[in-house]
Design goal:
With 690 residues, the chain is of the alpha+beta class. Helix content is 25%, strand content 19%.
């Protein structure tokens, strides 16, 4: 399965030590999307170096001597004030124990130990044996390896394997993230309920409320991205921790989009949640020289110059909290690592980050491929301070940069004929039946097949399906639905979507609010029935025939479109088959909905959703004359779109609608695919419309 080429010895012609270059660790860069409180409270951001901050080459002995001198100088002062210090320490400890520790014992998971030394430590309680020794346990995480390797000679099956591993890891990350926010909201709601019925003492209630307000003020909104990364790290699910990969990460494609810095860490594309330069520290390197592996270009430094294939990247350090250069930079840490990577000819991964309206975080990070550092110099920056500059050139024969595709897609959305003067057959094959136009593009041949079909935005069901729809089948919510309404109860006691319309977890069927519900059209439980919201393009492909791609970024878990056709019963389908018409059988679609929201790797007691349940699908869909964009989506055994069954305008569970949702973040102009499954005795040979 490919080859791992180790970097056992770089063989420097002029080592950093010989040139008098200091080898010390960097100061952290200015915070990007994290607050300092996030970094302090989350164990995700613990120092990956097992030796702490002792990576400064040649400085440990000097540091120790200084410590010894300071200790000798202060020994007499310490002895004279020792009694007062211990007295004050004891007083503060008693205050803490009385005000906090004793109260925590009511929850049963901690205890105050009365030991002979009178330390009275707060420790976890062993629930199995209260009399056993009490110890403080600390979670151990898998540390990043310092071994540098390059992955080569990957076969097509290897590439598919690694791609599937990355895809499933990212899907798990997004599933945890989107479910974490409603969970926090429910906790806050339960807190308000406890307050209203007076289950807590007034003093403790005020303290908890103050803590909640401080947390909300610090984070502004729930940080599902941090929770997802932390849970996955605790379970050992972060990728590429056993090796430090130079070059492309197997399974990560150029153009892949990420909404959060922590997701880059989870897949191993960039291992620093804060700093813009990821590198192997000098203390972990085989030849005691730091080596850079990736950088993030996010416009945080005023001296950066980005021309796409050529990049002038400013070293880190020397900035104030307003991202203004306030002091000279030093050749240390990541700055030195970039210089050493240039010296040894080691390529670096470049990830660009910028603000993007379609992102869950307001920002997007896109992997743009491999660059080589071809020059390095010290210059006076715009603020008048010395900064290090690195000139990087993109390695040839790589796919187009993802950031370039994003800019091109933005032009297509507003000025399609300017971006592509030729190739467009139609600027809206839906003929305004969709809320957004659907483009038809072919620059390969003269085929214009999609224009010969009537566009069908929603499936057409037999009339008998609506016979049992009654006025008493809807919820009574007026302002909007919540987890206590009638429709939520039909969904197993929870609404299927968050406030942004993201599917929280796949289910056998989802009940949306329908025409007999009293909630407004803006209700969060009316997602798929609102129709297409993204701008799509049906295009001609040399590989898959006709295909579908979006001009917008599609967020994981968001609604794509309905798979529309004329619904036929089994008897009707048999007659249509005799005429040779194109039929689609919903029972054939693989149940990919079960993968979205599957937390079995996180929770040992996870159970696949079985409620609400529906009987096996026993109908077909005729798309021989009327169809929509979904019929042109290609088949894939590793799809990026899933089929979720939904009911909203009728209650006949034998005839649900086929709604498509994104399984991952889908960049603009990337082809959409679904898993059509395999044929059976009834459906016969698999017939994909395109």
């Amino acid at each position: 399965m490919g080859s791992l080429v180790p970097f056992l010895q770089f063989g420097p012609s002029n080592s950093a030590a010989a040139n008098g270059v200091p080898m010390i660790e960097p100061k952290l860069e200015p915070l990007d999307e994290f607050t300092q409180a996030d970094l302090q409270t989350s164990p995700v951001f613990s120092n990956p170096s097992p030796t702490g901050s002792s990576d400064k080459a040649g400085s440990s002995s000097g540091f120790s001597s200084r410590i010894a001198q300071e200790a000798n100088a202060s020994e007499s002062l310490q002895n004279s004030n020792e009694a007062n210090v211990y007295s004050e320490f004891y007083r503060i400890s008693e205050m803490f124990r009385a005000a906090f520790a004793k109260r925590m014992q009511q929850y049963g998971d901690v205890a105050v130990v009365e030991d002979p030394d009178n330390s009275r430590a707060i420790v976890p309680v062993n629930s199995d044996d209260q009399s056993s020794s009490l110890v403080i346990s600390r979670k151990k995480y898998q540390q990043r390896s310092s071994e540098l390797v390059r992955v080569t000679d990957l076969k097509p099956e290897d590439q598919r394997y690694f791609r599937d591993v990355v895809r499933r890891t990212r899907m798990l990350y997004d599933s945890i993230r989107v479910q974490a926010i409603p969970e926090d909201e429910r906790k806050h709601h339960q807190f308000d309920q406890r307050k209203s019925i007076g289950e807590m003492e007034a003093s403790q209630l005020m303290r908890e409320k103050d803590d909640t307000n401080q947390q909300c003020e610090r984070h502004k909104k729930p940080r599902g991205d941090l929770k997802a990364s932390q849970l996955m790290r605790e379970k050992g699910l972060w990728l590429n921790r056993d090796k430090r990969i130079v070059g492309d990460i197997p399974g990560v494609l150029i153009g892949d989009l990420f909404f959060f810095r922590m997701e880059l860490c989870v897949v191993g594309l960039h291992g620093q949640p804060q700093a813009g330069i990821d590198y192997v520290p000098a203390s972990q390197s085989s030849n005691r020289e730091p080596i850079a592996t990736s950088i993030i270009v996010s416009g945080g430094y005023e001296d950066d110059e980005d021309a796409g294939d050529v990049l002038i990247y400013t070293g880190h350090g020397g900035q104030d909290r307003f991202s203004k250069q306030c002091t000279n930079q030093k050749l240390e840490g990541g700055n030195l690592a970039l210089e050493r990577s240039m010296h040894y000819g080691i390529e670096v991964r470049v990830i660009r980050g910028f603000k993007y309206a379609g992102s869950a975080s307001g920002k997007v990070y896109v992997y743009d491929g491999l660059y080589r550092i071809i020059d390095f110099w010290l210059a006076v920056g715009k603020s008048g301070f010395l900064v290090f500059k690195y000139k990087l050139a993109r390695i040839e024969n790589q796919p187009e940069m993802g950031s370039s595709v994003l800019r091109f897609a933005q032009t297509l959305r507003t000025q399609p004929l300017v971006a592509r003067p030729t190739g467009y057959i139609s600027l809206d094959i839906s003929r305004k039946k969709e809320s957004t136009p659907v483009f038809l593009y072919n620059d390969i041949d003269t085929d214009q097949e999609p224009v010969y079909y009537d566009y069908l935005p929603k499936s057409v069901f037999p009339q008998h399906v609506y016979q049992h729809v009654g006025s008493g089948t809807g919820c009574e919510c007026v302002a909007g639905c919540n987890d206590n309404c009638f429709c939520a109860m039909r969904n197993g006691g929870e609404l299927a979507y968050d406030h942004n319309g993201i599917l929280l977890r796949g289910k056998p069927v989802v009940f949306e609010c329908g025409p007999h519900c009293h909630c407004p059209p803006s209700c969060r439980n009316r997602v798929s029935q609102k129709g297409v919201r993204k701008r799509f393009e049906v295009f001609r492909s040399r590989e898959t025939g006709w295909g579908v791609r979006s001009l917008d970024l599609i967020q994981a878990g968001s609604f794509v479109c309905e798979y529309a056709g004329v619904v036929l019963t089994r008897e009707q389908a048999q007659i249509f088959r005799m005429n040779g018409d194109s039929l689609v059988y919903p029972s054939r679609f693989v149940e990919r909905w079960a993968e979205w929201g599957d937390l079995s790797q996180i929770h040992d007691d996870y159970v696949r959703p079985e409620h609400p349940s529906i009987p096996p699908l026993d109908f077909a869909m005729d798309v021989s004359r009327m169809r929509n964009i979904a019929c042109y989506m290609s088949h894939s055994s590793s799809p990026n779109v899933l089929v979720q069954l939904v009911l909203y305008d009728h209650n006949n569970v034998c005839f649900p609608r086929l709604m498509l949702f994104a399984m991952e973040n889908i960049p603009p102009l990337r082809e959409l695919s679904i898993d059509y499954g395999v044929a059976d005795e009834w459906t016969g040979k698999l017939a994909i419309c395109n």
